[in-house]
Amino acid sequence: MYNPQVPTDGHSKATDTHFGKGTQAFGNAPEQQGNQRIRHLLKCFGLRTSLIRLKVIDALLTAADNQRTLGVRGVHSHLLELGIPLSFLSVREVLKRLCSEGVITLNADKSYSLHEEAAKVLESRA
């Protein structure tokens, strides 16, 4: 029986030079490695992974690396600069949910930061 997914020239797709080494030929992009850490973090807190959660947490981590803090407007602006068209309300709701689950904390100045337990989870994955 003919299977169109199996090459008929005697070469397998995995070793054929035309196909390269698949996605591993490009290596792991830094963003993918960061996303894996954030995915693990969300899993540890019992949350499903979504693009908006990944991007919101990444924005907070980037701000913390630059010794800055972000509120709802700051996170929303950062995402818009990255070309991620999310509504202000969506960003606010994600931040509220991440707060209620203990992943991030709302500071006295209305900015958000990673909760220390979440920071420990990320440090263990570094």
From TrEMBL:
User: Mind telling me which SUPFAM superfamilies this protein's record contains?
Assistant: Winged helix' DNA-binding domain
Q: Which domain of life does the protein's organism represent?
A: Bacteria
- Which residues does the annotated region (Disordered) include? 1-32
- Positions with biased composition (Basic and acidic residues): 10-19
Which InterPro entries does its entry note? UCP029502, WH_DNA-bd_sf
Question: What name is this protein filed under?
Answer: Fe2+ zn2+ uptake regulation protein
